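Q: Could you fold this chain for me?
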Amino acid sequence: IGVNAVILGCWRIQGLRRFMETWFRHCAIPQPRPLTLLTACFSHSYVLAHFLPNMASLMVYFGPVKQALGLHQATAVYLSAGIMGFASSHVIRLVCYHHFRQELKPSLGASGSVMGIMAVTYTCYYHQTHQEMMGVGK
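A: Sure. Below is the predicted structure, expressed as structure tokens.
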């Protein structure tokens, strides 16, 4: 959450704006940069509509994942889910652009990462609840 907050603050510094647009949001065309698949996972430009809901969800769901998997693996889930989210978005945007001439806009945000963390939390919780319901482990 701290890294996301610092990067949000960097978006507010006028002198960093061009740097942030180049390296902290993912764009499929004209010049895709693979590194932005990772850096965009920490980048937000709107506080109320995007940053706060993502960080509130992350605060709720990251703890159980960290407890179940450990800090390093929970961080790996966050990063991999974000990268996969942006990679999927990249492909879908290109298909829509080529087949439907839909405008390509750069994307950013932790939504994919947060969804990955939520999925792991629900998977662990469901498994635990299911075992309790079935009387396994008693």
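A (continued): The radius of gyration is 17 Å.
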